[in-house]
Fold this protein.
Amino acid sequence: MSTKAEPRTQTAQPVQSLDIVRERLNHLHRVDGLHWREIALLEPYRGLTPGMLVNIAKGHNPKDPRIRSILRLPEGIDGPGARDCACGRTFIPNAWNRVHCYVCSPPRGSAGTSNRDGAKG
Ligand SMILES: [Zn+2]
């Protein structure tokens, strides 16, 4: 069987953030009502166990590079720059002064921010 390497259109796979992965998993589980076993069979999650998916959906940040590449997460979560939020999530800050993860403190510019009072302190 000669499977020719199909010349795929080079769509650069965008790197996903863990939050996006988590949201999708939770959506599949809660909204679509899929079992974790079933989710693990879906194309984007091939190679992951249901248990892993549960952990990731709960906020676990996988360290295994293989898992990270399946989920297209950025590499090197333990590298310089990774920080721990007070909530326990590890995140890579997009700015030097970011101290909270993207869940606790969603980045600006995300659509639908009706929160107008930026008055602090
Ligand atoms: Zn947090």
